[in-house]
Amino acid sequence: MFKLFKANLKMMVRNRQALFWSIAFPVIFIVIFGLFFGHDNTSSGTITIINKSKNEISIGVDRGITESKVFKITKIDSIDKAKSEIKKGKLSAAVYIPENFGVAGPDTTNKIKIYVDPASVQTSGVLRTITDKILTEASFKIQNVQPLFVTEQELINNNSKNNDFTYFDFVLVGILGLALMNGSIIGIAVSISKYREDKILKRIISTPLKTWKFVLAEVTSRLVLNLVQIALILSIGIYGFNGHINGNIFVVVMLSLLGGILFQLVGFTIASFAKTTDAAEGMAQAVSIPMMFLAGIFFPIDSLPTWLSNIVQYLPLAPLLRMMRTVAIEAGSPFANPANILIVLGWILITLTISLYKFRLTEE
Amino acid sequence: MKNTIEVTNLVKKYGNFAAVNDISFTVNRGEIFGLIGENGAGKTTTLEIIEGLRKATSGNIKILDLDLNKNLSEIKSKIGIQLQSSAYYRYLKLGEIIDLFASFYGQETNPKELLKQVGLEQKIDSFVNNLSGGQKQRFSIVASLINDPEIVFLDEPTTGLDPISRRHLWEIIAEIKKRNKTIILTTHYMEEAEILCDRIGIMDAGKIVAIDDTYKLIKHAKHPIRIKFIAKNIESLKTKLAGIGELSYIAGKEYHCELILNKQSELQKALKEIHAYKPDELTVSKATLEDVFIELTGRNITEEESV
Questions:
Q1: What pLDDT score does A270 carry?
Q2: Which residues of A47-78 are buried (b: 16+ CB within 10 A; e: fewer)?
Q3: How far is B66 from chain A (nearest CA, A)?
Q4: Which of A191, A197, A207, A215 to mutate against chain B (most B CBs within 10 Å)?
Q5: How far is B241 from chain A (nearest CA, A)?
Q6: Residue boundaries of the structural domains of chain B
């Protein structure tokens, strides 16, 4: 059994092209999403702040907007230049604080001007809200009054010390799931049916090798590949694009490997039904593509129509991602909702039984 | 223990179609037993049932006194199998494949020693895809010997090979027999079966239509002797030879004649008659396995290359 495990690894490494792509595929995904949603670029647009007045309030506004981290701030000196940048579409908005803002004297003004690109509706809306809020707070402070009504936000089910989590953190876990699902289901389904087509499988069945040993060697050797994929995705996501794993990263890796096992067994199940390699590939796609879009890789499944999310949440990928996110984002326990682990284990049991049973004979 | 394999009333049905239709035969220890027949006659199905790769619909199979249904795992460790046109792992070297398969039998083996038996010791670090057709076939035969089996199954071992490679393979198979192993092979080359096999079973449409020692099968051919000669104006000869045998032209070639005799004892008489016509070239030969095969199945074997 150990020899087969070693031989499988050897073959994996020698099949350079397949190895390269099974690693490149998740890396490409994580880089694309990282570029879109990673650290700096989580902003709602690029703006500039031109502060001609140097008093306490104007400096406060400047700092307040910058520290909100909502926007990417660039430095531009003159308002005319800023306007032309907006026209060229290189800038979404400019905040202009005139020289006479908030100074004591006859030509004082209490207005801060915001120039916006009409196309950047969202940026201008957010920018105005933030600026107004800062100014209101400043006004309260000067008048020495407390606001009468406030809101308070509390995250449910959250044990994390670090509360800032971004869409990228959400997608990072999703991409882990995607890479494991794609690589494992299609990889196993295709390679095993290729073995069947080449009669390698038949030749193996003619030896006294036990089926479970064969399956175990295939699954464990692929887990090594999965581990490399997981490590790459997590390190590129965390170090390259400022993603966060708030919970125990070891648990996240363990859950990912559990997912690897699950999807490999799904691949085995497909291979045991497919008569040809082409059929196996088609079946693997048919199983993984709906899950790719519906099981919560890119957006939470509650945004699906109710009837659909009722179905989707029982597919193997959805509960796995829920568990992984509970750990990765909320720093919770993977068993917080026992239904998740039960569904995953249930699928493992079903696919394992089918694989072991169907592989005993090559018959017809 | 004389019989190594004992098949009784074996039936394999796919729906209503009987691929193997109630056959019984035995294979003796240390012999080369051949199953011959057209493609689709049921040879490979029969073989794969005996190898435990397919389930029989009904019937009994005993191998080395073990019941196939009850002792499959033990039987698998005592037999070696070469499958029809099977491939091996693309990304493993020959030595590594042998090593790996030995581990499936829970054994250690010396890959170099094994490869030497088929003249492939230089190729121990090559991949299967870099071998020629003959080398691949030799490798698949040596792969069936990894567990030092008592019985070796060879399913069309020489299909698709050139005549030189084929003869080389015959030598290898004969060598295996010398090491006291029982061999069962299927083939659709009659010449090959005639040379290699001690005993032969002829299959047709799922049935065994004849089974005997190879030489006896040929001896009992309906026309045991054939005479080929070249002669002109032989119309009158036809009537003289009527009752002794049948005279015909070979493949429509004028003057190329063939006479098949019903009895060996008529040979002298037939030769005398033919000599009267002063033939150019004359050869007398025994019937071949192919003649017997055609007599029994009523058609010529169709050679399909399943490469």
A1: 92
A2: bbbbbebeeebbebbbebbeebebbbbeebee
A3: 15
A4: A207
A5: 54
A6: 3-219, 225-286
A43-143, what's its fold? abc type-2 transporter like fold (3.40.1710)
The reply to whether B73 touches chain A by the CB within 8 Å rule is: yes
What ipTM does this complex have? Answer: 0.82
Q: Which CATH architecture has domain B3-219?
A: 3-Layer(aba) Sandwich (3.40)
Residue of A nearest to B14 (CA): A364
> DSSP code of A302?
G
Of the pLDDT bands very low, low, confident and very high (cuts 50, 70, 90), residue A39 is low
Q: Is A203 on the interface with B (CB under 8 A)?
A: yes
The H or E element that residue A49 is part of is strand A46-51
Annotate chain B with three-state secondary structure.
CCEEEEEEEEEEEECCEEEEEEEEEEEECCCEEEEECCCCCCHHHHHHHHCCCCCCCEEEEEECCEECCCCHHHHHHHEEEECCCCCCCCCCEHHHHHHHHHHHCCCCCCHHHHHHHCCCHHHCCCEHHHCCHHHHHHHHHHHCCCCCCCEEEEECCCCCCCHHHHHHHHHHHHHHHHCCCEEEEEECCHHHHHHHCCEEEEEECCEEEEEEEHHHHHHCCCCCEEEEEECCCCHHHHHHHCCCEEEEEHHHCCCEEEEEECCHHHHHHHHHHHHCCCCEEEEEEECCHHHHHHHHHCCCCCCCCCC
How many whole angstroms separate alpha carbon A283 and alpha carbon B162?
A: 40
Render the burial of A322-347: b for 16+ CB within 10 Å, e for the rest.
Answer: bbbbbbbbbbbebeebeebbebbeeb
Q: Per residue in A142-167, pLDDT tens?
A: 888 877 787 776 665 555 555 566 78
Residue with tokens 């090491």: B179
pTM score over 0.80: no
Residues 6 or more apart whose CB falls under 8 angstroms from that of B20 comprise B10, B11, B12, B42, B45, B46, B49, B56, B206
Question: Between residues 9 and 48 of chain A, which touch chain B (CB distance below 8 Å)?
Answer: 10-11, 14-15
| Interface check B306 vs A, CB under 8 A | no
Of all residues in chain B, the one with the smallest CA distance to A209 is B104
CB contact under 8 A, A198 and B86: yes
CATH architecture of B225-286: 2-Layer Sandwich (3.30)
* Residues facing residue B21 across a β-bridge: B11
B129 touches chain A (CB under 8 A): no
Across the interface, whether the CB atoms of B91 and A10 are under 8 A apart is answered yes
List chain A domain ranges: 2-38+166-358, 43-143
Alpha-carbon gap, residue A88 to B137, rounded angstroms: 71
pLDDT tens readout for residues A231-268 = 999 999 888 888 888 888 899 999 999 999 999 999 99
List CB contacts (< 8 A) between A202 and chain B. 53, 83, 86
Name the residue among B133, B196, B139 with its Cα closest to residue B161.
B133
- The pLDDT assigned to B304 comes to 44
The C-alpha of A4 sits at a distance from chain B's nearest C-alpha, in angstroms, of: 6
Report yes or no: A69 at the B interface, CB cutoff 8 Å: no
Distance CA B135, CA B208 (A): 33
CA distance linking residue B164 with residue B161, whole number of Å: 8
Reference B22, options B48, B61, B49, B59; nearest CA is B59
Question: Residues of B with CB below 8 A from A190's CB?
Answer: none
CA distances from B257 to A110, B222, B231, B284 (A): 124, 19, 7, 12
